[in-house]
Amino acid sequence: MAPAFEPQQDAPLELQGGAGNPSLAVNDGPKSRVTVVGSGNWGSVAAKLIASNTLKLPSFHDEVRMWVFEEVLPSGEKLTDVINRTNENVKYLPGIKLGKNVVADPELDNAVKDANMLVFVTPHQFMEGICKRLVGKIKEGAEAISLIKGMEVKMEGPCMISSLISDLLGINCCVLMGANIANEIAVEKFSEATVGYREKRETAEKWVQLFSTPYFMVSAVEDVEGVELCGTLKNVVAIAAGFVDGLEMGNNTKAAIMRIGLREMKAFSKLLFPSVKDSTFFESCGVADLITTCLGGRNRKVAEAFAKNGGQRSFDDLEAEMLQGQKLQGVSTAKEVYEVLRHRGWLELFPLFATVHEISTGHLPPSAIVEYSEHKPVFSW
């Protein structure tokens, strides 16, 4: 079991402005306990952001638990032991101090048992299994937020990760997405994010308060599906952008791919969820996240290598070689999107999404990324 953090005395109220709205910092109820479920690159950065605020805000307990999938490092030490000894995730976020109030815990049940605010940030393909392990283990009245970019595709249709969490655990779930390359936020370079919520504005404000710092500006919109689909689908477009980079096609081509990708993101989102708002695509979770992911990020990087190798090396091989244990989201999301398109007869309406999957699985060469529009109709809103 992970050690407990020795809490410091709460900061005075006049120091509470770091969350972006000092008026929200008044403590008129029991303190909230936060657990981060996940400890990869982005999960560690999320824990760092949150921990800096729980020390300042009287409405939160200082300690932030972070569930870590236990690994044994080459040194023979357990990853959780090293994190708790050095205050650093030496595998997924080396060189960055997380905050002395972050406690790594390898036991999922123990990590969440006292938390009434749960932050989910793991690869999306693991979430159903994690949620099933947590059934009956979550504190009554807990709130969740998902930072996870992806979807589950079931027989009855696509299921967003926030819905999976809500359905399996019986709790409300917001989402946080945005132009958030984790390593840049870790060194406190300015960026933005968007919280998507349903109806309960006060809950969204609490999440905004928990994540906001002077270098991480968070806003909220009442559009969970729109925010979450932006964060999910942009990884598919980033794969396409990586193909363009690997083939050295230039900036004009990449800009065209990004524009077409944004159009397909919007069209797909609105077909699945007519409630999705046009304005959401102009938030950080929309066009900004699309731009930064197509310029940097792991999906673009690995797709570039895939194209440079002429599609002769699989994404699984490249992921294992290039990402040091981190997971791609774009390739699996492209497969899931493709399944939805095929099942509903929409393949011809989304030529870019369809082509990304067909290239990723070896059915088309990487060069097909700019050949599709000559042969298939383009769908627009």
UniProtKB/TrEMBL annotation:
Catalytic activity: sn-glycerol 3-phosphate + NAD(+) = dihydroxyacetone phosphate + NADH + H(+)
Start and end residues of each stretch annotated as Disordered: 1-29
Residue intervals of the Glycerol-3-phosphate dehydrogenase NAD-dependent N-terminal domain: 34-200
One CC-aspect GO term: cytosol
InterPro entries per UniProt: 6-PGluconate_DH-like_C_sf, 6PGD_dom2, G3P_DH_NAD-dep, G3P_DH_NAD-dep_C, G3P_DH_NAD-dep_euk, G3P_DH_NAD-dep_N, NAD(P)-bd_dom_sf
Broad EC category: oxidoreductase
Signal peptide: none
Residues engaged in binding NAD(+): G38, S39, G40, N41, W42, G43, F69, F126, A182, R298, K327, Q329
Family matches, as PROSITE patterns: NAD_G3PDH
Example GO biological process: glycerol-3-phosphate catabolic process
UniProt KW keywords: NAD, Oxidoreductase
EC number: 1.1.1.8
Catalytic residues (positions): K234 (proton acceptor)
Keyword Transmembrane helix: no
GO-annotated molecular function: glycerol-3-phosphate dehydrogenase (NAD+) activity; NAD binding; protein homodimerization activity
Domain named Glycerol-3-phosphate dehydrogenase NAD-dependent C-terminal: residues: 223-371
Residues that coordinate or bind substrate: K149, R298, N299
Family: Belongs to the NAD-dependent glycerol-3-phosphate dehydrogenase family.
Protein name: Glycerol-3-phosphate dehydrogenase [NAD(+)]
Native source species: Punica granatum (Pomegranate)
Lineage: Eukaryota, Viridiplantae, Streptophyta, Embryophyta, Tracheophyta
Gene name of the record: LOC116214678
